[in-house]
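Annex B. Sample input.
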Amino acid sequence: MATQFQTLDPPPGDSAASTLPADSSSEDERQKPLRDVHGVAWFLVICSVLSSTFLFGLDTTIVAVVQPTIVTEFDALQDLPWLFTAFMLGAAATNLFWGQVYSNFNTKWTYIGCICLFEVGSAISGVAPNMSAMIVGRAVCGAGGAGMYTGVMTFLSMLTTEQERSLYLGVPGLTWGIATVLGPIFGGAFTESSVGWRFAFYFNLLVGALFAPITIFLIPSRGPRSGAMLVKRTERLDWAGLVLITGIFVALLMAISFGGLTYLWNSGQIIALFVLAGVLVIVYWTQQTFCLGTARDARTIPFEFLRNAPLMIIFFNETFASTAGFIPVSFVPLFFQFVRGDSALQSGVRLLPLVCLLVAMILLAGYVASKTGKTTPIFFFGGALVLAGGAMMYTVDANASDAQVYAYTAILGTGAGVYFNVPFSAAQACTDPDLIPVAVGFISFAQLASPAISIAIANSVFLSQSTQNIASLLPSADETLIYGIISGVEKSYVDSLDAPTRDALIDIIVGAMGNAYVLVIAAGALTLILSPVLLFFPNAQRAPPTTQKDKPAV
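Annex B, continued. Sample output.
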């Protein structure tokens, strides 16, 4: 296939490179595109790989407005947190592992394998007969999505010149951001249309099938960096680390999700899950520290990072920004659906002030950081806005106007977006150059893992407090009726209540939602507390400024 594309016209700006004599300087050689796909074929390849990034971003937020419909159909309100958490769990647990896979195996076929994994997860979610199958499908989707995104970044790094690279590597993030904006709208539109909510997952299959020919026949194939045998390359992967880190997440999230709802917090089941998570953390630390079952340079997380104070502060700042960005994505639609009686599509549109500003600030903050080389002021500014926005959302009650909610979520989205991606560049400034790729993966892990845990905590608190307080208000209501009230199925029952009781019921639900923003308030406050420590580490206050050679070719 390689020779087929060599006759195609080169992209704009590369014509000079294509006519260089054989004795050109090494610097000029480095500016040649590291690919044999050009012109229209290269454009189609870019569209193909960006489609997978788009689907990954879409699935991150598409369940925000679909979740009430799904938990109602499956009569599984207690499993509400898992629709989002399972997806992020799959992505976070495998994110670091995928980097190792791409380093040791053919990039193209690894990428195609990740697409297949994502599509299998989508198919499982689409045909799921119950909530358990849905959760499995979402987890598989998350794992495949993380692999797709890693593959896209790997491809663009391998197939572009230094001049092109900064331009191309910025596009996947922009695509992901646009997809997260459209996710709730797509989800709401599918739910209200004749195709139903399941098409929110079937949609992934259609897009995957559309771009499959391009992915299979046009994307260049790149072999592994190592010429070792397949068995040797497989052995280099940190399988033990993958199993342990997945076990930690599963045990911890099960304890958080089931505690106070399915089982009492002091029950043997919940205590056992927390103990298991703690034991697995110790085993994982031991395995990574002493390189048990893995090579030192193949560990999922180099534990010397834990002794790097500025890097750990940057890591935690990423967890705070991600928490602040995703909690309102889950709870703002619920607020409008319950209090205002919005449809799924209407509640998705209500998220636009939050998500649009979050994405816009990600782009603006990245530009400012690259131009000024300063990141610490960005952390301060973002943390202050997150603290303010979280505190405002905590005060929202059933009488709050739409304008208030829009304004508060806009402030929150601005704050989270300001430092949502800045830690990626900040981490490079306080890390050994040889470990920069690993450090970037470490920060990416924080970005994916933190919302999985924070959403699980927020949903657990919301459901636990709602059920307990509704049971006190309506002593004759059984568990099924209470779950129906919270999910919105029993709207006719709520409307039949006398005005004082109905108002008290709405206050209970909205108050329980408000408690989710305690985590956002804590995230903003901790950002402001930890960020001053970076002032004692000059390197950690700088982002790699844009140099002439990093500027994209035009």
